[in-house]
Structures are given as structure tokens and as C-alpha cells.
Amino acid sequence: MALPPPNYDEALVPGYTLPELLRTEAGTAVSAVASWEAQRRPELLELFRRYVYGRLDLAVSLSVSHVVDRAPACAGLARRSEFDVRLSREARSPVVRVLVVEPSAGAGPFPAFVGLNLFGNQTVHPDPAIRLAQGWLPENTDLGLTGNVATEASRGMHASRFPIELIVSRGYALVTAYVGDLDPDFDDGFENGIHALLPAVARRASDAPGSISAWAFGLSRILDALASHPTLDRERCAVFGHSRLGKAALWAAAQDPRSALAIPNESGCVGAALSRRCYGERLLHITERFPHWFCPALRDFNDREHELPVDQHQLLALLAPRPLYVASAAADLWADPRGERLACEAAPPAYDLYGLRGLEPDGRIGYHVRPGRHDITPRDFWHFLEFAGRLLLSREG
Ligand code: GTR
């Protein structure tokens, strides 16, 4: 199908009305925390499940096996652990290899940045001892990845996206895992990864969960598994991700109140950006190129964003009262930086219910737009660490 080109002209953004945040589907105004938490919040989660990300109802019985425990890393600055999380006893169960790098100074428990990676744990740091990702990997010649398998050449190739030395020097741990361990990032009709554990009827439904849901589910299971890692502070975990992984981080944090801070970086379309602006990447672009990311029902809103029962400011509002940090890049027009900012401006009424400020210097929603293109850089992390220093470390455990 020939897709229409994206619009990058602010003058051509259609007029739109955002779906109301603080009014139930039955039309009742929501003016207190009690009705937000008991009614509107679950209702919004349900709408996002039904029309956007899909429903992933799956009881798992986790088993965690430690592979490496607190071995010296990063020239003595850090300690590295690796452990495997098996989601169920079934033979086809995904097994997720989790990499933890924590400060070597101090005994912890350390607050942590928890985020997935797209090309294997070996890409986040050149440390030759990190196990290469197993199974299928996307090809990426820039990263030295050919033949759909992990390569030695890919070691450390995404280190700039995971600035471990910076993170541990500020007293935080990094926790990461390869998305392919949860659900490989290609369209196989919802068969592999976590999908293999679901009944056929759930995989064929209009609200069948896409990969973003599978990755979000995996982030929550990693939070579960951190119980076996006493040097990490489970009350102070920031869930972060870049781009498609920013969408997954947001969806995970919206559903799982244990994410003490959410950091979607340049998450764009069906992430932090308002869909109704129809600016840059649109639903018809993303569902055509990545049909496996969302539930099939989302495609019904291609070129009909104004009919979608939700918009992304409502997803951001599901974080309230927890802190949220949204990051954009000025040249990343495909992800609509302005649409990300406007979603942050429309989310604060949910924070108001708790007597908390939103997008203000002392508020619970942080935002930056840095110069440059689509990427997650040490400069972005510098901002995340400043925000976390104010709102994650001060959190009452
Ligand atoms: C793009 C996609 C974006 C974003 C990005 C990425 O191709 O259209 O929505 O997710 O991939 O993940 O790098």
C-alpha cells in the first residue's frame, strides 16, 4: 500500500479536540482521587488495552537463576550481575537474560534505571564478559550485526545509549534485557516469544497484545525478579526506553505502579505524542510498517485518529501521582516533539487531583527537547539523572 507522506507543516495540523481526561465514558466528571483511581483510571487502561496495545492476561510462575553475581566491571567502578528469568515451566517459555550493572561503591540498595535494549545486552557495554544475546536479532550493519545473530563486533556498539559509567557514578544501577528474549521484533502473526504462552483465542482477538505489550509485560516481570537482587532498591526503579522501547516503557509504567518514574525518550507516535495532531508519523504509517507492535483493532483508526477513543495525554496521565519525564529531539520531527510537549501539557489535571503540580519547574512532569536527531544520548541521561535526583531519590520508600 502506498502511504501518504508525513505532514511536517504546523499550519496543516487539523483542528482537534482531545478526549476528556477527567470525565468517565458515562459522562460523570471526575474531581477526586477516589473516583479517578476506582473508575476513570481503570476505564482508561481498558480503552488502551482494547484499542491500542492489546490485552496480555497471563499468569506466570517465574523462576530466577543467577549466572554471574556482582563481578567487577568498568575498571572497578561497577559490579556486573547476570541472571535468567524463566516465565513459566513450559518448554516454550521465554527465558530473559537480565544484565545488572551497579555501583561498586557502597552496599546499596541502589535505585535503578530499568530499560530494554533492541540488539542484545552485549551492545550496551564493550565488557567482553557480557553474554552475547541468543536467538534471532535484527540485522544492523552499523552495529556489526549480520546474519540475524549476535556478533562479537556488536559489543558496546550502543554504549552511548546506555551511559553506564555516568549512571553508576551518580549512585544508580542499570538493569537491561534484550527485547527479543520477550518477543522478537518482527511480524510473525503473534506466534513467538510471550505469545507462545497465550491461548490461540487470545492471539487471534482484535485486542491481541502486540510486541509493545509483550515488552511492557516483560519490564514488569523484570521488576518482579529484582526481588532476588537485594542490592537493588525496588521502591526506586525508573523505567526508561528510547523510541519503540519508550512506548513500551510508558505502557509498562502506566499499568505497573511499581515503576516509580517513567522516562519515555522520543517515543513519538503511540508513545508520548498526541495522535490527533497527525504530524510526522501517523497511525497508518506505524501500523503498516510495524503491524506486530499493537493490537489489530488500532488499524481501524488509520486516517481516523479523531475517532480513537483515547489520545496519548491520557496515557501520560495514568502515571499520576508518580513522576514522568518525557524527552524529545528537535530534529526528530517524525516523532513530533511538539506533540510530545502538548501531551505533557494536557496530562497535569490528573496530578492536580493529588494536589501535585505537573509540567512546572517544581512539578512531577519533566520535559526537555535537545538539539539533534532521533537518539538517546548521555546528554539526555544527564537530564534524567537531575530529575531522578529530585523526584526518585526523595521518594519515601
Ligand atoms: C521507527 C518508528 C518509530 C520509532 C522508531 C524506533 O521506524 O516509526 O515509531 O519507534 O522506529 O523505534 O527507532
Topology, element by element:
Blueprint: H1 33-53, E1 63-73, E2 78-86, E3 95-103, E4 110-117, H2 164-169, E5 173-178, H3 200-204, H4 211-225, E6 232-242, H5 244-255, E7 261-265, H6 283-289, H7 312-317, E8 324-329, H8 337-346, H9 348-352, E9 365-370, H10 378-391
Parallel strand pairs: 4-5, 4-6, 6-7, 7-8, 8-9
Antiparallel strand pairs: 1-2, 2-3, 3-5
The structure holds beta-D-galactopyranuronic acid (GTR).
Residues 243-244, 268-269, 281, 286 line the site of beta-D-galactopyranuronic acid.
Q: Could you please describe the fold and organization of this structure?
A:
The mean pLDDT is 97. It is globular, with a radius of gyration of 20 Å. The N and C termini lie far apart (52 Å). Helix 4 (211-225) packs across helix 5. With 397 residues, it is α/β, with parallel strands linked by helices. The longest helix is centred in the first third of the chain and has 21 residues, at 33-53. It has helices at 33-53, 164-169, 200-204, 211-225, 244-255, 283-289, 312-317, 337-346, 348-352, 378-391; strands at 63-73, 78-86, 95-103, 110-117, 173-178, 232-242, 261-265, 324-329, 365-370. Helix content is 25%, strand content 18%. Strand 1 and strand 2 form a beta hairpin. Strands 1-2-3-5-4-6-7-8-9 form a 9-stranded mixed β-sheet, sandwiched between helices. The structure holds beta-D-galactopyranuronic acid.
